[in-house]
Amino acid sequence: LAYRKYSFVNWCPSCVTVLANEQVIDERCWRCESIVVQKELEQWFLKITDYAEELLQRCDELEGWPERVIAMQKNWIGKSTGVEVDFKIDGMDEHIRIFTTRQDTLFGATFVCIALIHPLTEKLFSDKDGLENLKTRYGRMDEKSGLFTGFRAINPMNGEKIPIYVANFVLMEYGTGAIMSVPAHDQRDFDFAQKYSLPVRVVIVPPTHPSPPRGEGEGGGEGLLSAITEAYEGEGVLVHSGQFSGLKSAIARERIAQFIEDKGIGKRVVNYKFRDWGISRQRYWGTPIPVIYCEKCGIVPVPEKDLPVILPENVKFKGKGGSPLLESEKFINTECPVCGGKARRETDTMDTFVDSSWYFIRYCLRKGNIDLASALRSLESEVRYWMPVDQYIGGIEHAVLHLLYSRFFVKVMRDLGLIDFSEPFKNLLTQGMVIKDGAKMSKSKGNVVDPNHLIQKYGADTLRLFSLFAAPPEKDLEWSDKGVEGAYRFLKRLWGIVYKNSDKLRVTSYEYKDKNSSLITHHSSQLLRKTHQTIKRVTTDIEREYHFNTAVAALMELVNEIASFKPGTHEDWASLRFSVERALLLLSPFAPHVAEELWEALGNKSSIFEERWPDWDEEIAKEERIELVIQVNGKLRSKLLIPLGITDDEIKEMALQESKVKDIVGRKTIKKVIVVKGKLVNIVIGG
RNA sequence: GCGAGAGUGGCGGAACUGGCAGACGCGCUGGACUUAGGAUCCAGUGGGUAACUCCGUAGGGGUUCAACUCCCCUCUCUCGCACCA
Q1: What are the C-alpha distances in Å from A231 to residues A197, A202, A522?
Q2: Is A246 left (phi over 0), alpha (psi -120 to 50) or beta?
Q3: Most buried one in A101, A223, A404, A483, CB count within 10 A?
Q4: Distance from first CA to last CA of chain A, Å, rounded?
């Protein structure tokens, strides 16, 4: 899966290193944002494309992943199925192999285009100056351009001779570096045909087209229409396509693919945009690529017993980028593990993403210096217990980097028999980024809000609480200091409640079994209900979607109720203490320092962090009365407090007796009454 | 162009499977206590209206007793990929 090849690679001149395709963002380096250039180098690659199909297929298993990330990965892999077909070159013992996903439009091909750097280009092109001109002027593809080679290709479907162009928009890296051009059914080809006055032949008519002409007008100039103003790229019915005329495109694709294979002029193929992963980096800080180059034996892997290769420590950093390993003679010069002769170490290190592709597996193993392979294979392996990761959290920026590489690594490790699962992360939460002045907050951009002055003014707990309260985690957050005050006030209020009443609160204790005691006052039991409801809400909000913002909001509601609670009896004080304690427990993950401090102020001797997370009692949490919403024709007209456990008929009767309802209904006929249990009544009346 | 997501008060955001739109917080308005208030507390706060009530979840249609939520069309924004044949 690891191989070395000489090729054009992405090169960051500022970092003085190679970058993977995934690390180039809008033609810029992912780390320093310098413009990336292409450089021809011999580099190490990992054959991630061997796993393209599995990486794609298993996307469907990633149920706990956001749709967006899955879409990005599928898109990145970029699978397309089609055919490769050979077009003979007229008067030459050569052919051009083209790739197309639309073999149903083969009869509409009116010219062929090959890439500027296609192997045949030099051969076919007599006008060397013109070619150079094209390369220099239009190599960047700002505008579609091409030149006629003077040669023609023979369309194997109908024997037609069509011109061969060299075109700047044809990519050598994808497919075969050559295409058939069907201007009637591909907009790019259409634009090109317009520019160079090439013929346009319609071979697909939309399915809604009135009675497609079947089998008529074969060959010759028939079907050549110049009237159309844009390409029709959709599905339809074939016309002017010989024996295939009259077929629907989907069926025709199948039949024509079969025809091509039967005739031996081409075959079905699958193409991916996905490229192999270049992992060589000209950096010091990375895992050395464990390879030795021997003058006699060539490339020799460092034997397992000599692993890991340790980076030398006494190297000179010049601060100009590039790897200092290149100048460390001690590191470079070594012996060949095979013949013992003079050899040289690889000085490139691995892409940082190689390490991060499997660290989560290593993290499961507690022991320090271990034989990793045997540890993984052991049946008692902690990896078996912990993996796959239940919940992974990271930024969206890893969608086609870390998250793709890790999926690849896990599959490779599985195929090596080291692990027995295929996907590393069951659930994925892509948390939003903090945005400042329209850009992602980052050190390199310098648009960072220094939290220190806010911490000095309000404390770390306030800042944390506010950050969690501001937005749900998956959302981007445009940072603003506004609102920090609110979190601060909230904590201060709770603080005040505890310290103002600490004498009374300290001496009381709440006995859970007293919940039905007749001593419990009405407002006391209301507070207890709210407390249990809050425990439930906070717990489920955290567990369900990590929605800390609504969890904090629920906590604020509880504290509001606590603040307005006026204890009278001893039992009231006990209820208050219970509520305050629960509130502190619920608060402890969000504002640990304040929670711990107040916990102690209540007279507790041990840390709040040694307490269990509180449970709620569904019975106590239940409202004893519900507010019934009364609608007439779907519009809110009245509300009614009703006790629990009342029948639908009774609810109906109560609603109809409501004076407001009576006014509105008047003499009109009641068509229907809909009762939604415990919630609402809707009375439908006639006009 | 393709793919994904989003659009709710002045602002950040709530609303679980269709069932009270605007929870909670910021801000704002008025009041109390105050030498003072940028502290605290109380009341109010989607819009129009004196009020009944009406209008409101980007816009337009539809389904439904009932739509922020479901369906169709349109617009805007964000992100990803992109002459990928």
Answers
A1: 15, 9, 76
A2: left
A3: A404
A4: 76
- Give, in Å, how far the C1' of B23 lies from the CA of A250: 52
The candidate with the shortest Cα–Cα distance to A309, out of A285, A330, A328, A290, is A290
Predicted pLDDT of residue A222: 45
Distance A535 CA to B13 C1' (A): 22
Which pLDDT value is given to residue A212?
42
pLDDT at A446: 67
Tokens 């087209």 — which residue? Answer: A209
| Cα separation, A538 vs A222, whole angstroms | 73
Q: Which of A444, A428, A427, A285 lies closest to A354 in space, CA to CA? A: A285
Of A251, A201, A209, whose CA–CA distance to A231 is shortest?
A201
In the chain, the amino acid numbered A675 is V
Residue A616 burial (CB count, 10 A): 18
Give A178's contacts (C-beta < 8 A, 6+ positions apart): A96, A97, A98, A99, A112, A113, A114, A115, A118, A120, A170
Q: Cβ of A175 < 7 Å from strand B?
A: yes
Q: Average pLDDT for consecutive 10-residue bins of chain A (687 residues)?
A: 88 86 83 83 91 92 87 90 94 92 94 91 78 67 80 94 92 90 91 91 77 41 59 87 91 94 93 90 90 94 91 81 81 92 93 92 77 74 89 86 94 92 92 74 69 88 92 84 89 93 77 57 87 95 89 95 88 90 96 95 93 92 83 84 81 82 79 84 81
Cβ of residue A117 near strand B, that is under 7 Å?
Answer: no
Lookup: tokens for A342 = 């003079």
- Provide the CB-side half-sphere exposure for A622 (13 A, CA): 8
At residue A517, the pLDDT reads 59
- Give φ, ψ of A457 to 5 degrees: -80, -40
Residue nearest to nucleotide B13 (CA to C1'): A471
Q: Which two tokens stand for residue A302?
A: 């460092």
The answer to whether A190 and A141 are in contact (CB under 8 A) is: no
Separation of A532 CA and B44 C1' (Å): 30
| Rounded Cα distance, A487 and A485, in Å | 6
